[in-house]
Amino acid sequence: MSKRNTVIDLFCGCGGLSQGFIDAGYKISLGIDKWKDAIETFNFNHKDSKGIVADLLELNPVTVSENEKIDEVDVIIGGPPCQGFSIAGKRIIEDERNQLYKTFVNFVEHFKPKAFLMENVPNIMSMGKGAIRNQIIKDFENLGYKVSHQILLASDYGVPQNRKRAFFVGLKNGSEFKFPIPTTTNNKVTSEEAISDLTEHTVNDGTPYMHKYKSSFQKQMRNGNKFIFNHQITEHKEKTIEIIAMVPDGGNYKNLPKELHETRKVNIAWTRLNSQKPSFTIDTGHRHHFHYEFNRVPTVRESARIQSFPDDFIFQCSKTSQYKQVGNAVPPVLAKVLAETIKNYL
Ligand SMILES: C[S@@+](CC[C@H](N)C(=O)[O-])C[C@H]1O[C@@H](n2cnc3c(N)ncnc32)[C@H](O)[C@@H]1O
Questions:
Q1: Partner of 45 at 20 to 30 A CA spacing, among 18, 28, 30, 110?
Q2: Which catalytic residues are annotated (predicted)?
C-alpha cells in the first residue's frame, strides 16, 4: 500500500478542512485548536488522528515536533483568524492580532512541508488595497514556496451553499498550483436537494432515517450510514413562528407587513432558505435564517448538510457549540476537491 501523505491542521476547529483531506486519502497526523469543544468533535470523528487543545500563540513548532514526535509532514493546512490584520505601509505589523498568522508561517518554516493550504475570509485579498495579500505571498516566497491564491465559491464544487473563501496554496517544488476548475456552476445543489429528507420535528440521536434519500447529494451525505444524529429542532416562541410563517420560501423581512420590518434590527433578519437555490453562507447560530418550509431555524444536522459534512460526522457538546463548530468550518466537499488537486503536485 502506498504511504498516505501526512497533514498538520492548525486552527482545526471541529475538522471540516481535515475531513476533506481524509476523504481525499491523506492522514491527519495532528490537529491543533484552543477550543476544547471543537477538539472533542475532532477527536470523536477522526479516530485515526490526534486533536490537541492548545493556544497557538503559546505553542511553537519545535515543541510540537518533540512532544508529538513528528519530524516530517507533507502538507500544513489551516485557517488562522486574520480579521485583525494591521499594516504599516505595505508591511504586516508584528502585533498581537497578526501573531496567529505568523504562527502558521512559523510552522511552515519549521516543518518545510511539500505544500501548504491557508484558508481565510475573502476580503483578506482586498485588505489594504491588496497589501496584505502581497505580504502573505512574500512571506511564503521567502521560505521558498511558489504561492497561488484564489477566492472559491463552494457551490461551484458540489456544496449546497454560496460560501466564498480565500485560499492560498504554496508548493515547495516550485510548480505553480492551478486551482480546481468549478464542477457544478450550472447544476448547483439546492437547499431542497440538501435537506428535504430530514423531518420537521426532532429526531433522537441514533434513530434510523425516516425517509429514503431524495437526491444524489443526500445519498452522498448518507454515505451508507443508517442513523440520524444532531437533528434536534429549536422551539421558537409562538410570536416568532407566527412571523416566519408569513415569509415565503426564499423570502425575507420585506415580505412581512411594514410594522414587522423592524422587529429584528439586522438586514438579514427573517430570511428563509430558497429551496431551489444553494443556501446563503450559514452562520454560527444567530437564528436569523429559517428553513425554506418549516417554521424554525435549520437543525445542526441540516446546517451540517449545507456545509457538506457527511451524516456520520457527529457534533459533540452543547447545541449552541455545535452550531458554532459547523458554521466555522470549511465545507468538507470543497476541502476534498482542493486536497485531491494538491495531491497531483506532491
Ligand atoms: C474558522 S475556525 C477553523 C475551522 C476549521 N478550519 C474547519 O474547517 O473546521 C478558526 C479556529 O481558530 C481557533 N483559534 C483561534 N485562536 C486560536 C489560538 N490562539 N490558538 C489555537 N486556536 C485558535 C478557533 O478556536 C477556531 O476553531
A1: 110
A2: 82
